[in-house]
Amino acid sequence: MSFSKIPQFVIPVLLVAIVLISGCSTNPATGEQSFTAFMDAEDEIRVGAEEHPKMLEAFGGTYDDRALTAYLNAIGQRMVAKSELPDLKFQFFVLNDDTVNAFALPGGYVYISRGLIALAEDEAELAGVIGHEIGHVTARHSAQRYSSAMATNIGLTAVSIIGSVLGAPSGLGNLASFGAQAALQSYSRGQELEADKLGVRYMTQLGYDPSALGDFFSKLDAHTNIHAKKAGRSADTFNIMQTHPRTSDRINQAKELAKTETPPDARRVRLPFLSQIDGLLFGKDPKEGFMKGDTFIHPELGFKFDFPPNFKVDNGKTKIEATDDKGTTIVFDMESPKVATGMPDLSSYISRHWGPKLDIKPENVDTLTINGLPAATARASVDTNKGPHEFRMLVIRGARDRLYRFVFLTTPEVTDKMSVPLRRTTYSFNLLKPGEENQFQPPRIRIKTVNAGESETSIAAKMPFDDYNDDWFRALNLNVISDGLAIGEKVKVVGN
Question: Which residue from 317, 346, 319 is spatially nearest to 330, judged by alpha carbons?
Fold first, then answer.
């Protein structure tokens, strides 16, 4: 049949059908047919190599610990040898990222964050995570995602054309687009569970206890609960755009797999793992600053200041944002060196950078001195999407090319009450004295032996998380405390 005789609006539909019929391949990991029409094995290697530098940059680069990296690589390579793609050149990286994170790029690039490694309790748990990421590669999940996205785009074009010709409802294209985004935002729920199954396959072939994967998911659940608790949110909140299976689903599947997959003399390998992570950096890299109690310290940039008690602090890449349960917000950041150098007058800086939006004139700016440093401040009332707020801005000059900036946002009801605590924050800002940065050590994982008379609470009390000390101790040691602490047992703690 000639395409010239086919109605134009039908051609896209036929193209989709042709692609779907001809684009399936046999999945090397599962033996089933999967749709990979738009990405072959060579494409996967090329894409992985192209995206690898971007991943390192986005996630803080690699963690500087050769022994830990070699340890991770040794586990990974042994698992690759048991996989369906033993000849693919896999590479394993420890990311300098405090979040609990792991992912893989096509072509065999596998990344495990130091935050995830800190949460694990033994080698078998780490192996389960590594095996999961290897499973994403061997099952060609990225090729499936990319190919489905391409086919979906073709399909959406067809829907749009047919809709315009046949008078379909105008919102149909947007609805289809939303569905495509929901399906393709990340690995599908089925792909995540499939990668879990493959991870169990690879770890059991090396003699690891597959129940370790379920144990790690339980720690992940505890970790999620801590952050939900700190943020004042429910850990059970489900976002319609979330495509990962809930942790409970993965725990249940891992338990079922462990019933049938456990090898004789299954191994957990706890003590060698603990020796590898003793001293592992915990939390933010010192290059980004870190909290010690209520004090934020930035050794590299050479300053420190105090937050009021009971503020939840989020230390981001370019700013720090802290909030309390009364709606007060503190935002701290720094002006670019170029702008700071060209702005000698702080009153002019405030009126120029904040003034146009808040109607602040130079004569309304107050100057002050904070621990010997020149500073300026101004106030304004602003309407936000959460109602009226009092807005106070503060700028401090630390050097010719350094301007430190605070914004304090309060509701009118608490402005007077928060005046003293926020003034304390203001006047707590100080530059570190030469050599003082060496006195501040960031938190690290430490391995402790339980002594007579010690309890979970007494050990946890020495960690730096205040109200969350007990929560963190349990999350880091779920396995060992499941039957109570015994004298001589090794536990993970966080300290300097």
Answer: 319
